[in-house]
Structures are given as structure tokens and as C-alpha cells.
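Follow-up to my earlier ticket, as requested here are the two runs.
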Amino acid sequence: MLKSNYIGQLLSQIQSDERLGIAPTKNPQRIIVDYPSPNVAKEMHVGHLRSAIIGECLSRILEFIGHDVLRISHIGDWGTPFGMLIAYLKEAYPEALTASKNLNLGELSTFYRQAKKRFDEDESFQNASRQAVVELQTGDEETIKAWKIVCELSSRSYRQIYDLMGLSSIVERGESFYNPFLAETLQELDRLGLLETSEGAMCVFLEGFTNRDGDSLPLIVKKSDGGYNYATTDLAAIRYRVREDKAQRVIYPVGSEQNNHFTQIFQVGRRAGWITDEHDFVHAEFGLILGEDGKKLKTRSGEAIRLKDLLDEAIARVRTDLATRFAAEERTESQEFIDNSAQVIGISAVKYADLSQNRTSDYRFSYDKMLDLKGNTAPYLLYAYVRVQGISRKGSIDFQQLGNANVVLAETTELALAKHILQLAEILQDVERDLLPNRICLYLFELSQKFNQFYDQCPILQADEPQRTSRLILADLTARTIKLGLSLLGINVLERM
């Protein structure tokens, strides 16, 4: 009983604390989370889902712990695909280059398909596209203006997705941002004796990477035609983030297929002295999203599924389910309530289905599983939260007016629930270290299970005092913990379902 009294005292201390007793870190760091965004020339597809969801979640957790987090959208806004789009803009919409404001060019997908069709069918257009790349790299004024218009068209497209997914404010810093620093980055590598010429290309020969003959493999940083590549940009970014951004930790939530790339650029960064023992550059790798057949998730035609289509489908399924359930219960709700609930539940289900997996593993995408009201899903957690709000409505309880009453833990289910609530701080420390959001998901799922057991076995509103108030406080602490945990995952709650 001493143990339960001690836990009850801890809960009593945190019941009026917005942070639920979780103290900020004593050693705050400057942390950059690099959201690898799509190439500006193309739409966001399902392959961009995990980086956005995982990056947002890690950013929220690290900020809550007390770190200074800078979210950077590393947009692919420079290079070959832009030649095609710029050439098409000049040909099909020349008035856009003289208008005071950007014209409405429609959807990015339509614009891109039209440009690609011209590129595939017309050799002269292909030559114009290649020339546009040259003009872009040399800073031609008209080409730069066309490039900015194309970038804005794409930016509008993926901002809609970011807003739908509830992503926080992100600094857009694309490949073009680092273009002015590429030459000086290579000059510094050359001064350090790290650059070598191989078949006309400038390279850094890597330690631990060899070919079949045992010779060291090169990381090309300047091609034989004088052009730069992704490695060059990423090295310039490392250098900038250490020296200008003063970052102490940089996290890259990127697919595991890029393991070698990050191992290589991190090695070069260390050999150049940019990354020291005081810096932690981490590739937070993740696996693939698979279909229910275990193969890479694609449309029937074999193309990558548009991310907006995937999210819209989740919302539509929830909306249909809600309409069916309300009709069966003879329950009337406004269209606004149904639409808002469908969007919150649908987006939450997609996010949670991803974050609840070990990020290093592939997982099978299933609408049916992620929208199930049972099991480790967002709807299950949302329902546990809503249950507590239902208690408040039914009993006309204002949880904020309960005061600092003692929490009495007499039943086994009460004690188990209380102990679990107090474990959140430890879980957050684990995620800060390992960058595995599924630890929070498992914690919240088990919390919801323990609450439902408590709810089923322990009367709350019907209990006598002081047990009634104690159990109300325990229920409120559960709901607040679920709400906090879900917010760290980037998921909103509903007050009714």
C-alpha cells in the first residue's frame, strides 16, 4: 500500500502541470531535422510519406524535451528536370514571364505531363530543355524568372499536402540554396588534400569502400563535364549547418536505400573536420511502404501513388464509415462535424500506422487495419480519449476544477494505470536517444488498454467520495497523457466520435 500511496502522491503533484511533470532537458542542443522533400518538378507521392511523418514527429518530440529544433525542407529545386519545365513554360506560357504576378498554370501534375509529352516527342524541344539547364546554371535572367515560377507552382502543390497533414512551419532551403557554396566547398576539400582526379571527375576516395579488385571507390563531387551532383550539395549542406547554423545534431529521416550515400558523405565531413566529436550526424533510416501483397505500394498501372490521393482515400473511407454508423444508431450530426471527424481520423490513422512501426522496417499499408477501432491504431487511442470527455459531459464535470485532491489507488487496475502514466518521461528519453517513435505509440496503446480495463472495472461517476474525485483525476490524467502523446506524434484529438 505504501507503493500505491507514493504513486498517488506523484500523480497529485502533476495533475495541474501542463507538461505532466516532464522537466525540460538540462542540456539543450541546436538540432536540425532535414525533411527530404520531393523534386520540385514532380508531385509528392507515397514515397514521400514516411520522411514527412517521421521528421515532423521527431521535431515535435525534441522541441518538447527542450531542444532548439530547425526544420529544413531540403527541396530538389535544381538540376536537369527543370530544363524541361522551363522550356515548356517559355513555349506555352510566354506571358508568364512578363506578368507582374504569377499566372494560374493549373495543377503541377497537368503541367508536368504536358511538358514531358513535348520532351518525349520533339527533339528540338529536348535541345531547348538542355539549353535551359545551361542558362539556369549561368544565371540567365529570363531563365531564373521561369525557374522561380515553376518552383512556386510546385510549392503551392506540396504546401496543400503539408497543411492537410498538419506539418509545422518548415524552412524551405533547397539544393539551389547551396549552389553558391559548392565551389568553395570543393576548394576546401582540395586544400585538405582530399580531392583527386579520376577519369576527368573530381573525387574523394573513400575508406572502407572498395571494388572487386580491392581498390578504393570514389565519391564523385564534380563530374567530368564540370557539373555538380547530390553529394556535392549534401557536403556543402554539412559544412553550412555546422559553421553557419551552429547545429550540434543533424537528423536525416531518409529511406534505408540511401545508407551508403550518408555513410560516405558523413565520412568525408569527418575527414574534412566539419563533423567532430561535438557533432552528431544521424541517418534515421526507414523501410519501404508495401501493399497488402507485400510488394512496393503502387497503382494498378505501376506508378507511385500520389500522396494526396492516398490521404483523400483514407478520409473518404472514414466519412463513409461514420455515415453508416450514425444511421445505424439513428444519430444526427452536422455535415461539418462529419467532415472534420473524417479528416482528423483519416489523417491520424495514416500517420499512426506509419509511426507505430519500427521505422527501420518495411510495413504493409492497409486501410482496414489502420482504421480499426480495435488494436494498436489511432482510432483506438482517439476513442480512449473521447471516453474520458464523455465522462465529463455525462457528469457535468470540469476537470480543471477538481483541485489538488489526493489520488487514492485501491484497485489493481488503478495502480497499473497510474504507474503507466508516470513512465512517459522515460519513454521520451528513449526516443530522444534512439529516434524510434514507435516506442511512444506502444506506450500510448498500452495506456489506452489499461485505461479501458480501469474504466470497465472501476465505477467512476457512481463511486463514493473520495474515490470518485480520485478516479476522475486519474481519468483526466490519462486523457491528457494521450492528448500530449498524440500531439508529439503530430496527431490531433477529437472531443466526440
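Run two:
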Amino acid sequence: MIVAISFITYVIFALLLSGRFAASVPASRGIGVSAGIAGWVLHGWLLYLAILAMPGLALNTGSAMSFVAWMIAGMGLAFLTRPAFTGLAVLLVGFGGLGVLLTGLGGPGYSNPALEWPLKAHILLSAAAYSLLSVAAALAVLLAIQDDRLRSHKSIGWLRHLPAMDTMESMMFGAISIGFVGLTMAVFSGLIFVDNLFAQHLVHKTILSLASWLVFGILTLGRWRLGWRGKVALRWVLGGFVILALAYFGSKIVLELLLDRQWGEVVY
């Protein structure tokens, strides 16, 4: 029931802020924002019940995706403080609507009652960093589409509802900077807290995470020292994100759905 209500309120938010109601009904923005916040709060409560309510931390594939989508939707709602960002906010909050439908999918997940708070913090920090870098990747895709439309002299269509390209590029690099700091803390705290990479099925995740960290580190350095932007920067952003997605969700899907194993689970 919570899933259905949350999804419906997300849909109401999208319809009222992006549809014809936004122009014809003055109160539509206020109602839409309220619906979006309500859907986000319900989504958060659902995640609490699915992940944190039981001892330990139960974070299966579906709930992990849902948690990342919830954080992205929260960033989208924050963008509503600036009316010019409404179009971008609708896109980001839309991830929340898709994510809430995935909550709990992929098996029961692995919950270790003895899981200590540093490892819990590492897991949640990893998800937060992934969320920020996901927003950066989404902005990179939108920038690439805008650039292609402008260079080919095509109509920008729905892209006219997005902020200016310079603004979006600045937002992208801001998300990368904060996300890279979070990813650095997540990767190296994981190396400290994890006992046995092989026994806990974390080798592939760790190697790919380090590769992604290296890509985003080079991009950050290139932006700072060489002024990278445009297509060069977009390629590095998307490349780093793809590697990070494989590190987190790729390895998690293979373990849970194909091998019936979990991160951190030691099988003797």
C-alpha cells in the first residue's frame, strides 16, 4: 500500500509541475510540490522498514536502487527552491517514482545483526556518493543532448525547460566534487573495515570502485589544472559512472540473483 501511495504522489507531482496544469492552474505548483514531498517521505519510511527496521542492514538489489533513487529525488526537491530549475527537478524526482517500485525486489537481502556502525556508515556513505555521481551523470547526458541539438540546429523541445548549459555544467562539476569526496571516504573506509575481500565476495566491487575513483580523480584534476569541460569532461563523467554502476549494482545483481550470495556474507 505504501508503495502504491508513494508512486501515485510522485506521479501527481510530475503531472502538476510539468503538464498543462502548471500553466493553467495557479495552485498546481503548491499542490504538486506538496505531493512530491509526501511521496518522498513515504518512500523514505518504506526504505526504513525494508532496510533498517530489522537488526543489521538489509540492503538487497531492489532496496539499494530504491535508496539511491530516493536520494536523487531528494536533491530534485531541493532544486525546487529555484523556479528556473523546475524542469530538472521533475526529471530527478521521477527517479524516485521509479525507484519506489523496486523496493524489496531481489530477495530478502543480507542482514547481519552484529554489523557494527562503521560498516553501516560505509555502506550508506557509498550509496550517498553514488547518488551524487548519478546526478552528475544525468546532467552529463542532458548536456550531451543539448549540445547535439544546438550543433545540428534542431529544435531543443522539452530541453527548454532545463537551466542554461553553463549552469548545468557548473552543477555537474559541483556534484562530482562532493561525490568524489564521498566516494574517496567510502572506498578507503571499506578497505579498512572489510575483513576478507575474497570470503565476503567484495573483490570485484572493490577493484571496480577503485577504477571509478581513479577516473573521477583524473577528471577532477583535469578540470582544475587543464580546464577540462565540454565533450572531454562528459566522456570522463559517463565512463566513471558506468564503472561505478558495474561496481555496485553489476556485482550485486550477479551475487544475489545468479549466485544467491550477499556482500559481507561469509560462506564456509
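The only thing I checked on run two: Residues 1-107 form one domain. Let me know what else you need.
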